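Section: Multi-chain targets

For targets with more than one molecule, the full set of components is provided together so that the structure can be written out for the assembly as a whole rather than chain by chain. Components appear in the order listed by the source. The example entry contains two components.
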Amino acid sequence: MRTSQYLLSTLKETPAHAEVISHQLMLRAGLVRNVASGLYTWLPTGLRVLRKVEQIVREEMTKAGAIETLMPMVQPADLWQESERWEDYGPELLRLQDRHERSFVLGPTHEEVITSIIRNEVNSYKQLPLNVFQIQTKFRDEIRPRFGVMRGREFLMKDAYSFHITDECLKKTYQTMFDAYCRIFDRLGLDFRPVVADNGSIGGEGSHEFHVLADSGEDDIVFSDSSEYAANIEKAEALAPVGERPHGTQSIKEVATPDAKTIDAVATTLNIAVNQTVKTLLVQGATEDHPVIALVVRGDHQLNEVKAENLPQISSPLTFVTEEQVQQTVNCNIGSIGPIGLSIPVIVDRSAAHLADFVCGANKDGFHYTGVNWDNDLSNYTVADIRNVVEGDPSPCGKGKIVIKRGIEVGHIFQLGNKYAKAMNCGVLTESGKNQTLTMGCYGIGVSRIVAAAIEQNHDKYGIKWPKAIAPFQAAIVPMNMAKSERVKETAENLYKQLTSVGIDVLFDDRKERPGVMFADHELIGTPILLIVGERNLDDNKIEVKNRITGEKSLLDITDALSLFD
RNA sequence: CGGUGAUUAGCGCAGCUUGGUAGCGCACUUGGUUUGGGUCCAAGGGGUCGCAAGUUCGAAUCUUGCAUCACCGACCA
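Its structure, encoded as tokens over all components, is:
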């Protein structure tokens, strides 16, 4: 490709609205342009990267036995009604109508479509297992799109769905996919970790996320400092404190805490440590019998909403109660709620349940209790793990302490079970001639997000430093003063012909620009190898080679140029 | 959806307090100059100042409403 016939679209200045480095560099290097909130055009350079990522994913999926299809982005509402996600999915699902006023959705994912295909096309156990994938545009009407293509509303995703008769067979394919994902992210040149994950709204059991480690990540990943354990914080278990609960020595006492509306203020007022207090949160219950549930965590801990939501008593999604419900239930403001004397179910976090002589709200504005002890002062409660782990906690794997890092989720694999197959009546005849509902797995990779994640991990102050496998061009030819030197021009042209004739993806910078401008552009775009042609070295028949990753420069015989691409 | 802030040329910004002919840098066009790290000089093109209404002789500037965008919180590849 010649720059004179290409749309380079590089920018000298950083657009004001781009916050994270990958978004800034994607705009500056001319990879994408914003069209509307969460919607992007992929410019030629960006598309090249996207296609390379896509191709690696495709190759490894195929190698792992999956077969490619392409499903429509627009899907009929009846399929979603069948799976009951028409009601469950919420406003993230963009719904629309055609001219006949029939309802459709823009596909945020494709379980419904693929399940309906398989139930029609597959009738016998002999045709299974089957693993089908596609690389396709998804649409999710995110509440808040952000960070460029990292969380766009429209994005490119590889999604695969496997179908099985037995859970053993599903587990086998799941493991195959796990291994394929590791190969994919290795080939992409990313520093990644598979982590144990919650299944979320898709349901089922058994799930791993693949995270690219980067400070700008939106997820907290929990590691053990002395084992291979890694999990999303949503999933990481907070172990119960070891040993017996200390014996209380105090008796309950009501104390005035005027103006102390937060845990910190209460602790300061009473001159005690935050971890000797508990906070009580009121959330919606799952049943009409118990519309409000009290959750109790230690003052210095955070509620883990996913863990809470997974408890059967609690409504999903987790919803905090309204002001009115607070008044009806405890007749005081949020800052003074406590677990004592409530007529609603009380669920206490393991760490909070280990406290003795602690402080809690008195359900009376401006008052707290001190010297509170479980079983003495209240007995009607249950204990569960409902908090986020914090750094220094013992690792759930039993070895070492917890360390927390930020990650960008680029892949997620699930064992779905029969949720969709059952709802949509997808089964086959078994060997014994009986109908058997299938069990499913699903496996996603955020293709467009990978492009952003790769930049987050590979950049410097000059621009992007692409891993070789996904660089938009393998190399760039940068001639010095081609307009003035016939010799430079001829050499550069010949080099370009030679490289392109053997299929090397090279960008020939034939603009009439000063060297500095060209260097700056190619470093911004992140081309791994610059081939610099100048008068300076032509007497010796040499060109200069500059490596974008290492910064190393060296001289090379022109005739050896091909050796760079072995 | 709640909170915060923004909207003036393709991009980055000033002007608004105190109303009076819309400006700077980059980019773009033309000519020259320079040529191994974003040269320099000169001339030039480009803006319904987000939209609407109001106040006023007069609004980018003041008032009100709306829209869009971004950031912080709950969802997810």
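Residues 243 and 282 of chain A are 29 Å apart (CA to CA).
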